[in-house]
Design brief:
The protein is an alpha/beta fold. The protein contains 15 helices and 11 strands. The termini are far apart. The structure holds pyridoxal-5'-phosphate (PLP). Pyridoxal-5'-phosphate binds next to helix 6.
C-alpha cells in the first residue's frame, strides 16, 4: 500500500522509539477496561479512509496498550507470567520484519536449522536420543494435543478391534489434557496422585490394569505425566510412571509446559529423572525460558511417528516433501507457521546456556526467599514448600471473596498482579516467579498488603 517513503520512515522511527521505551524501562503494570470505556476512548478504529500510521500508533500507545496488563512486570506473579529477555524481544522485531516462513525447509532452511538447534538443546537436557526432534507450536495446549494425536495414530496401527481410545493422566494434570481428550473424542482416565500431588508408577499400573480388565475393548494409548504442575509446581514421578507405561507398550507423554524449563538448572535436574523415557514432551519457552509469546517446544522421541500423524497431503504441497528434508509443518496440527522459535533461539545463542542456567536458578532462589517471607509473616501460611518457582500460601481467616477483593485492589493500586487459585477446594494465593527481575523488595511490597 506504501513504498518505504518518507512517511513510512517517520512512522518507523516512532515505532522503534516506542519499542525501545518498552524494552528499556520498567513497564507500567496497567490493567483492563470495559468495552464501553474503550469505545469511549478509541471509537471505531476501522474506517474507509484509514486513520494514518501516526494516529493509529498514538491510539495504540495512549489507549490500547494501557488497557493490557504487562505480563513481564516484575510484580506480575499470577498464572504463569512471561519474562522475555531483551535479546529475545529485540529479535522478535527482526522476525516480524523479515516475512520468514517457518513451515518448510525449502522456504526457511536457515530459520528451521536454528530452531532445530534450540530444540536439540532441550532434547539433550532431557536425555532423548539424537534422533529426537520436533517443532515449535503456538502453545502447550496445541503441543499436548499434537503429541496425543500422534500417540493414537501410532497405536491404531498396533491394535485393531478397539471400541474406545483412552488417555490417562493425573487428576492434577493441566486442563489442556482434558481439552485434548474432548477434541479427539477419547475417554480420559484420571488417576489420583499421592498425598503430595505427585503421580506414582504404582498407582498408574493399578489404574491401567484394572481399567483394561474391566473394559477389554478399550485401549489406553497414552499416559500423560506432568513435570511441574501449573498450580503448585509439583513433578510427577517420571521414572516410575515411565517404567510402567513402557512395560505396557503405551505412549509416555510428559507435559512440562512450565516446569521442564528447569532441566537446565543442575540443582533440580534430578527431580526430572525418567523424562528420558518420554515418547514425547513439551516445554513452553514463553513461560520460563525467557522467550516472548507464543512458543511451545514439542519434541518426539521418534519424529517419524509425529509426521505419520500430521503430514498434510495436497497436490500443491507434495513438492515440499520430495527430498526428505525437515519440514516443521509436518510435526503438529498446523501448516503455515511463523518461525516462532527464533526469538528463543537468538536469546539462547547470544547469551549462552550458562546464563539460562543462572537465570532459572535465580528465580528458584527468589521462590525460596518468598517462602521464607511468607513463613515469617504473621497473617500467612505456606501451603507447601516450593519445588520449582511457584509459591502457594493462604491468608489466615479469609474466605474466597476476601481473596478476590484483595487481588482486585492490588491491581487497581498498581502494586502487583496476583490472582486467587484453589488447592483441595480451599482458596489460595500463589506467586509464580519466572522473571529474573522480580526482587525481594517486589515480594515484600505485595506481602505488606496482606
Ligand atoms: C501452561 C500449561 C499448559 C498450556 O500451555 P499453553 O501454552 O497455555 O497452551 C499445559 N500444561 C501445563 C503444565 C501448563 O503449565
Amino acid at each position: 500500500m506504501h513504498e518505504f517513503n518518507a512517511e513510512v520512515e517517520a512512522l518507523a522511527a516512532e515505532v522503534m522509539e516506542y519499542s525501545l521505551y518498552r524494552l528499556k524501562s520498567d513497564p507500567p503494570l496497567d490493567g483492563p477496561k470495559s468495552p464501553e470505556e474503550l469505545f469511549a476512548l478509541a471509537g471505531n478504529t476501522i474506517t474507509p479512509e484509514g486513520l494514518g500510521g501516526p494516529a493509529a500508533m498514538e491510539l495504540f500507545r495512549e489507549v490500547l496498550a494501557k488497557a493490557c496488563i504487562s505480563t513481564d512486570h516484575p510484580r506480575y506473579l499470577a498464572f504463569i507470567p512471561s519474562a522475555p529477555s531483551e535479546y529475545a524481544n529485540l529479535f522478535d522485531l527482526v522476525v516480524g520484519a523479515t516475512a520468514l516462513y517457518g513451515g518448510s525447509w525449502l522456504e526457511g532452511a536457515g530459520a528451521v536449522f536454528a530452531e532445530n538447534q534450540a530444540l536439540r538443546w532441550i532434547s539433550d537436557l532431557a536425555g532423548l536420543p539424537q534422533s529426537a526432534g520436533g517443532v515449535f507450536v503456538q502453545g502447550g495446549t496445541i503441543g499436548n494435543l499434537s503429541a496425543l494425536v500422534a500417540a493414537r495414530t501410532h497405536f491404531r496401527e498396533k491394535r485393531s478391534g478397539v471400541t474406545r481410545w483412552v488417555v490417562a493422566a493425573s487428576s492434577e494434570a493441566h486442563s489442556s489434557i482434558t481439552a485434548a481428550a474432548n477434541v479427539m473424542d477419547v475417554e480420559i482416565l484420571l488417576i489420583d496422585p499421592d498425598k503430595h500431588g505427585s503421580l506414582q508408577g504404582e498407582a498408574v499400573a493399578t489404574a491401567i490394569d484394572s481399567y483394561h480388565a474391566k473394559h477389554p475393548t478399550h485401549q489406553i494409548f497414552a499416559v500423560v505425566a506432568t513435570a511441574g504442575t501449573t498450580n503448585l509446581g509439583i513433578i510427577d514421578n517420571l521414572d516410575s510412571v515411565g517404567d510402567v507405561v513402557q512395560e505396557r507398550g503405551i505412549w509416555f507423554h510428559v507435559d512440562g509446559a512450565y516446569g521442564l524449563a528447569a532441566l537446565c538448572a543442575p540443582k533440580v535436574r534430578p527431580l526430572f529423572k525418567g523424562v528420558e523415557k518420554a515418547d514425547s514432551l513439551i516445554v513452553d519457552p514463553h513461560k520460563w525460558l525467557f522467550a516472548p509469546f507464543d512458543a511451545c517446544a514439542l519434541i518426539y522421541r521418534n519424529p517419524e511417528l509425529g509426521k505419520k500423524a500430521h503430514l498434510q497431503h495436497a497436490a500443491y504441497l507434495d513438492t515440499l516433501d520430495d527430498d526428505g528434508e525437515w519440514n516443521p509443518s509436518d510435526y503438529a496440527i498446523h501448516l503455515t507457521r511463523r518461525a516462532r522459535g527464533l526469538p528463543f533461539w537468538f536469546s539462547l545463542a547470544a547469551h549462552g546456556t550458562n546464563e539460562y542456567e543462572e537465570a532459572v536458578e535465580a528465580t528458584m532462589e527468589m521462590a525460596r526467599i518468598a517462602a521464607d517471607l511468607i513463613r515469617n509473616h504473621p497473617n500467612l501460611e505456606l501451603v507447601v514448600e516450593p519445588t520449582l518457582s511457584v509459591v502457594a500460601f493462604t491468608r489466615k481467616g479469609w474466605a474466597a471473596p476476601a481473596y478476590q477483593i484483595w487481588s482486585d485492589k492490588l491491581l487497581e493500586d498498581q502494586i502487583g498482579f496476583v490472582t486467587p487459585s484453589a488447592h483441595h477446594g480451599q482458596p489460595i494465593l500463589r506467586f509464580a516467579i519466572v522473571n529474573p527481575w522480580t526482587k525481594k523488595s517486589d515480594l515484600e511490597a505485595i506481602l505488606e498488603t496482606l
